Amino acid sequence: MSARGALKRLRDARPADDEGSILILTLGYAVLAIAVILVCVDATSLYLAQKRLDALADAAALAGADGFVLVAESGQPRAELTDEGVREQAAALVRDVGVDAVIVDAGTPDGVSARVTVADTWRPPVIALFVPDGVALEATATSRTALR
Question: 60: which of 35, 90, 120, 142 fits an S-S bond (Cβ 3.0–4.6 Å)?
């Protein structure tokens, strides 16, 4: 019986103030997990917005490369791009797509390539409190025209 008495004394001597400490720890980890998930959602949204803007810049540059004029030099036809032709074609594509992106620059550096830069603003879907004005995104693409 002395063993039972010793166990009873040990049980009674244990402090009772640690009740519920696991609940606080679990809640802390849950809050941390939710915060990590929300940050990951925002980071994924930013990545996808940049990829969409990259695709729009590629499409606008490709459309701009179609704005060539055929020129005959020494009896040989040649496709020549102009800044105005590139700008018109790229603006028409961006307007038809119907996004909020704007063309920052559109032109031809060498008369054969069309270079288009588009910009947009990304707004986070979650936790917009930390970035109320959004993040400015920009994408530049170049496309070449060739006549063979």
Answer: 90
Q: What is the predicted pLDDT for the residue at 138?
A: 97
Give the pairing type, strands 68-73 and 76-81. Answer: antiparallel
Angstrom distance (rounded) from CA 13 to CA 22: 21
Least reliable range by pLDDT among 1-5, 25-29, 52-56, 116-120: 1-5
**Tokens describing residue 118:** 């588009």
Q: How many CB atoms lie within 10 A of CB 61?
A: 26
14: alpha, beta or left? (left if phi > 0; alpha if psi -120 to 50)? beta
User: Phi and psi dihedrals of 61, rounded to 5?
Assistant: -65, -40
Asked whether residue 49 carries a pLDDT value surpassing 90, the answer given is yes
Q: And the tokens for 31?
A: 């809050």
The pLDDT, as a whole number, for residue 10 is 64
Give the SS3 label for residue 126.
coil
CB neighbour class for 124 (10 Å; exposed up to 12, middle 13-18, buried from 19): buried
| Helix extents (H) in the chain | 2-13, 21-65, 83-97
